[in-house]
């Protein structure tokens, strides 16, 4: 970790430097977004990340006298944040969040498994909260590009790792810190970090045949056109147009429902059972996890109001949609505020 130390007060009597309040505020402001993203990757929850980054700063402020100024202030904050996340994971009922229940086969026809509020579901992350690319650039030892390591599928994959393996992989393979630096942050030996990394990489190899997700290029005009066509299909209630945007092997998940679908025909059959549940839809483009996303407002029959209905995260591939993750019900509507969207939508005045 090569960051230059942040501004410190002169040493206290006894020789130990510490951050004064203005310096501490500058330090936390500079690293807030990247620490929040780190907590999100650890926890799989946008809401938990908000709370844990606040806990991190509170602990850092209370323990600032123990910071000796010899290491990186950024590393000091990451150490506190990572250990705060590990402690939080220990205290909750599930060590990880999911996009789909392990080993559950895809559904055929009508969704029958129903919602599962008792399960911990992976939440999407608004692009507006991502660090600037320059600030989030990984170190030289990183195995993942910045854009890869924020994708919804990647965060879902690392959630399968035991918490300490997850932390080691994020610190080494995503942030690019050495095993020795990571051992210093987590506590323990370099050998134990290397062992955790090997196990974590082997597990990811099971999720991805090549050991990592496919690389994505930067958003292109073709991706923008795909998003426009997706929005038009929803607003015109054009099911044929929507299904035409999917790859033949596309997948569709809809947290918090257990059901999920694979293949264009299976997805079409499901939508045919629910498409007419609402009188109409309005779509607002946004972005989540470095991917195009859409917020859908729906109007029920006999009701005039357009209400938050679902949040769609789209995984494009070769000018088509490879996967759709659609957050529905109270879970979906509850995400709108985090994306800066109102709970109801009004037609713009002419």
From TrEMBL:
InterPro entries cross-referenced by the UniProt entry: NTF2-like_dom_sf (IPR032710), RNA_pol_sigma-70-like (IPR039425), RNA_pol_sigma-70_dom (IPR014284), RNA_pol_sigma-G_actinobac (IPR014305), RNA_pol_sigma70_r2 (IPR007627), RNA_pol_sigma70_r4_t2 (IPR013249), RNA_pol_sigma_r2 (IPR013325), RNA_pol_sigma_r3/r4-like (IPR013324)
Keywords of the record: Sigma factor, Transcription, Transcription regulation
RNA polymerase sigma factor 70 region 4 type domain: residues covered: 152-204
Tagged with keyword Transferase: no
Ranges where the RNA polymerase sigma-70 region domain occurs: 29-93
Domain called SnoaL-like: residue spans: 228-304
Protein name: Sigma-70 family RNA polymerase sigma factor
């Amino acid at each position: 970790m090569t960051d230059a130390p942040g501004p410190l007060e002169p040493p206290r009597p006894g020789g130990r430097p510490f951050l004064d309040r203005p310096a501490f505020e500058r330090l936390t402001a500079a690293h807030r977004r990247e620490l929040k993203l780190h907590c999100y990757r650890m926890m799989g929850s946008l809401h938990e990340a908000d709370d844990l980054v606040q806990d991190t700063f509170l602990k850092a402020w209370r323990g600032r006298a123990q910071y000796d100024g010899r290491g990186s202030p950024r590393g000091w904050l990451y150490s506190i944040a990572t250990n705060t996340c590990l402690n939080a994971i220990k205290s909750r009922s599930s060590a990880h969040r999911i996009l789909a229940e392990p080993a559950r086969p895809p559904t055929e026809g009508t969704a029958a498994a129903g919602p599962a509020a008792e399960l911990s579901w992976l939440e999407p992350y608004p692009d507006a909260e991502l660090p600037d690319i320059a600030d989030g650039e990984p170190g030289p030892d990183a195995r993942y590009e910045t854009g890869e390591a924020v994708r919804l599928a990647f965060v879902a994959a690392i959630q399968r790792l035991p918490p300490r393996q997850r932390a080691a992989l994020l610190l080494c393979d995503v942030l690019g810190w050495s095993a020795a630096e990571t051992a210093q942050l987590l506590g323990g030996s370099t050998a134990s970090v290397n062992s955790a990394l090997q196990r974590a990489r082997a597990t990811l190899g099971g999720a991805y045949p090549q050991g990592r997700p496919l690389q994505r290029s930067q958003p292109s005009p073709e991706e923008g056109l795909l998003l426009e066509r997706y929005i038009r299909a929803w607003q015109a209630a054009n099911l044929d147009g929507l299904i035409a945007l999917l790859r033949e092997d596309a997948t569709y998940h809809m947290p918090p429902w257990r059901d999920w679908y694979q293949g264009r025909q299976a997805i079409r059959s499901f939508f045919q059972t629910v498409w007419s549940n609402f009188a109409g839809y309005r779509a607002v483009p946004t972005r989540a996890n470095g991917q195009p996303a859409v917020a859908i407002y729906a109007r029920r029959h006999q009701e005039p109001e357009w209400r938050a209905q679902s949040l769609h995260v789209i995984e494009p591939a070769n000018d088509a949609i490879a996967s759709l993750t659609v957050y529905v019900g109270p879970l979906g509507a509850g995400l709108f505020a985090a994306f800066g969207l109102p709970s109801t939508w009004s037609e713009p005045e002419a």
